[in-house]
Write a structure and sequence with these properties.
Keywords: Membrane, Transmembrane, Transmembrane helix. The chain crosses the membrane at residues 149-169, 181-200. It holds the Pfam family DCAF17. This protein is mainly beta. The chain has a domain at 52-253. It has helices at residues 138-142, 171-174, 202-209, 472-477; strands at 7-16, 21-23, 26-29, 34-37, 44-48, 58-64, 81-86, 90-95, 101-106, 118-122, 126-130, 149-157, 162-170, 178-184, 187-192, 196-201, 219-222, 225-228, 248-253, 259-262, 267-270, 280-285, 291-298, 308-311, 319-322, 326-335, 338-351, 362-364, 370-372, 386-393, 398-407, 410-419, 425-430, 441-446, 449-456, 460-469. A hairpin with a 3-residue loop joins strand 25 and strand 26 (326-335). It is globular.
Length: 478
């Protein structure tokens, strides 16, 4: 991968009028009706389905892969499949190889809309389908009728696909200022309008408030309704009724509800809940809320796009802090002679190449006249090399970065591979296509494949695939 003679060649480019998605070697186009494999030497079509009606439009999708060492009921369960959510409240499991519908589950009738929100609680094990926020019609609101149920969450075990339960997030239980909810790693995360974030034990909620378990396809008589679980028009019963506020695990106040947990021992990252603190991150112990030594991280960058911070996905407990021209990889370590206190130390940094950039506020002309600039140059000025994407490739243990420089209408980007342990640059790959910083971009680095999906003016989308090419003759000589 990192040998000097190894090149990445642009082998394929396609364009689309609709968004393009990528999942583990498969490129999806035309609202998941068209699937192309990117693993072959030249990307090729896997399947093309006929155009679907608007009512069957897919809003979100997750890729399911067979768990190792488990006996599954159907031969199709051993092959990769795609769970998709349609605009009309259907949850479908499709074959990743043919697009054939393997299973269909109807989620709910007109009481709520399930679309756009598919996520993992435990990856490849437990899946959450979240409804859109419940809103009363304008006439009902004007009449003074109060809406108490904000969201519904449907919980599924996957492969084989089975229904665990459905619950509602109610203002009467969680408070009137709830704005959003999420579930991750067995934790129910509830967000409030004032920046407050509260955490609850989701598994304990399912066990404590489950009224009656149901299986998909089971005939039921529930609250006066008779039907089959997951079948039209009945959908799923709301069989988990939270009647009392669950025990609170943890709460914190953070600007824009930004809250992350990670590290070892466990720490969390927040931004103090005031606008003047935007771009300032506090790293605190989850055990006792104490701020780590050097735990206030502030790049003090002046830029249009904010810097961002997150726990390293390699499970090392480190932290990645990304600014316009600087990437800091931080680590938690014990304070000397204080085993119960942790400090934040710099592991390594990656710096953008701005050697030729001179940002003087005062210049002197040839005649000796002093000219002062009215405005200072922003740290993410497009004409300077700026970091746009940072990712981690777990199978190769490489940290990848995308840096962009735009001069006029022409933007140039390169993908760099860095040693994940020390941060040293191992290889740089120039991307051939121009990069417009005013539109959204995604770059995937997947073993011997680099894939760039970009949005262009008028919602046009393009996908560029690069494959690794090895010059074996040169390698043999060396």
């Amino acid at each position: 991968m990192c040998q000097e003679s190894t090149k990445f060649k642009n082998v394929w480019t396609t364009h689309s009028a609709s968004p393009i998605a990528y999942e583990r070697g498969r490129i999806y186009m035309d609202n998941y009706q068209c699937c192309i494999t990117s693993i072959a030497q030249q990307p090729r079509l896997i399947y093309q389905k006929s155009k679907c009606a608007k009512s069957e439009k897919i809003e979100d999708a997750l890729l399911l892969e067979c768990p190792l060492g488990e006996m599954l009921p159907s031969p199709s369960d051993y092959k990769a499949s795609l769970i998709v959510l349609t605009v009309q409240n259907w949850l479908l499991r499709l074959s990743a190889d043919s697009g054939e519908v393997l299973e269909k589950v109807y989620l709910a009738g007109s009481c709520c809309k399930f679309f756009r929100y598919l996520s993992w609680d435990t990856p490849q094990e437990v899946m959450i389908v979240k409804s859109a926020q419940n809103k009363l019609p304008a006439a009902a609101r004007q009449a003074g009728i109060q809406q108490s149920v904000l969201f519904y969450l449907a919980v599924f075990q996957v492969l084989p696909l089975s229904f665990i339960g459905m619950l509602e997030i109610n203002k009467k239980i969680f408070g009137s200022s709830v704005t959003d909810v999420a579930v991750s790693n067995g934790i129910l995360i509830v967000m409030y309008s004032m920046g407050l974030v509260r955490l609850y034990n989701f598994k304990a909620i399912l066990e404590q408030f489950m009224e009656q378990p149901f299986a998909l396809g089971q005939e039921f008589n529930w609250n006066g309704q008779v039907g089959s679980v997951g079948k039209y028009p009945f959908g799923l019963p709301c069989n988990i009724k939270i009647t009392d506020t669950p025990p609170l695990l943890f709460e914190a106040s953070s600007l824009e509800n930004a809250f992350q947990i990670g590290g070892y021992p466990w720490h969390y990252i927040i931004t103090p809940n005031k606008k003047k603190h935007k771009g300032v991150f506090h790293i605190c112990s989850l055990k006792d809320n104490t701020l780590a030594k050097n735990g206030i991280q502030d790049m003090k960058c002046c830029s249009l796009e904010p810097d961002w911070i997150y726990f390293h996905p390699d499970m090392s407990g480190r932290i990645i802090h990304v600014g316009p021209n600087l990437i800091k990889v931080l680590k938690l370590k014990e304070v000397k002679n204080h085993a119960d206190q942790m400090e934040i130390a710099e592991d390594f940094t990656i710096v953008a190449n701005r050697e030729n950039c001179v940002n003087n506020n005062v210049t002197v002309t040839a005649s000796g006249r002093v000219v002062k600039k009215r405005f200072a140059l922003l740290d993410d000025d497009p004409e300077q090399e700026t970091f746009k994407i940072v990712d981690y490739e777990d199978e190769l243990d490489l940290l990848s970065t995308v840096a962009v420089t735009q001069i006029g209408a022409d933007g140039r980007a390169h993908l760099d591979f860095h040693c994940n342990e020390h941060g040293s640059l191992l290889k740089s790959i120039p991307l051939k296509e121009s990069w417009d910083v005013t539109y959204s971009h995604e770059v995937y680095f997947d073993k011997d494949l680099v894939l760039h999906i970009e949005q262009k003016p008028n919602r046009r989308f393009s996908c560029h695939v690069y494959q690794m090419v090895c010059d074996t003759a040169r390698d043999d000589d060396s």
